[in-house]
Amino acid sequence: MQNKPKFSIITCTWNSAATLADTLDSVLGQTCRDVEHIFVDGGSTDGTLDMIAAYPGNKRVLRDVGGGISRAMNQGIQAARGDYIAHLHSDDYYAAPDVLAQVDQCFASQQVDWVYGQVQVLRDGRLIAPYPLQPFTYRAFAAGRAWVGHPAVFVRKRAFERVGLFDEQLKYAMDVDLWLRLGAVARPGALNRPLTVFREHAGSLSTSNKIKARQEEFRVRRRYLHKAPLAFGIYCLRYLKRMRDLRAAPAP
C-alpha cells in the first residue's frame, strides 16, 4: 500500500479540455511532491479524460459522478487519503510552484485545521491584483467584511469529519456554508499572498447567476444568524446594496 500523501488535490471536471492543462501543470510544478491528485469527472465527452490518462502525476479518477458540483466535491473528499484537502477546479491553477510548500509550513507553524490565502483573477488574459487579505474572525466573516476564496482554501481531513461536508442541496454558496460551520469551531491560518488563479469566464459574469448566488448566500447566512446576530444585521445592509447594484447594472 502506498504511503498516505500529505495533500489531496481534488479537481472536478466536465468537458474541461480547454483549460485543464494549466491546472495539471500547476500541480506537477509544485516543489512539494507529497500529493495525490483526485479527478472527479461528470461524464466528459471531449478530450478531458484523455488528458487525465496521459497525466503522469499520482492520480485517481472517479468517473461519471452526477448530482452537481457539491456532490462531486464531496465524492473527492470521501476518496481522499491525504492530511490536507484542497479543491482546484479545472479552470483554476496554482499561482506559484511553492504554494503547497508554503501551505504545509503554515499548517505546521500555526497548528490550525484550515488555511486560506488570496485568489487572483485572470480576466481577458490579464491577472488582476488580488483584494487585500482581511484578518479572519467569525464576526467579520459573518458580516461580509472578511472573504475566504474557495480555490485558495486547504482543510485538514479531520476537520471535515468534525463539521461535515458540503451541503449538496446548494448550488452557489456551499463554500460559505462550510466556512460558517468550520469558522465557528476553528480559526484558520492565513497566507497573505496569491495561492490560486481563478479564470473568469462568461458564466461567472452572468448577472442572473450573480443574483441567484447572492440570494442563496443570504439564505445560507440566515441559518447561522443566531451565532452572530449583529454581524448578520451588518451583512443584510451589504446584501441590500449589492442586490440593488446588481439589478441596476447593464447587461454584459
TrEMBL record:
GO terms for molecular function: hexosyltransferase activity. Residues 8-119 form the Glycosyltransferase 2-like domain. InterPro entries: Glyco_trans_2-like (IPR001173), Nucleotide-diphossugar_trans (IPR029044). Keywords: Transferase. Pfam families: Glycos_transf_2. This is Glycosyltransferase. It comes from Massilia horti.
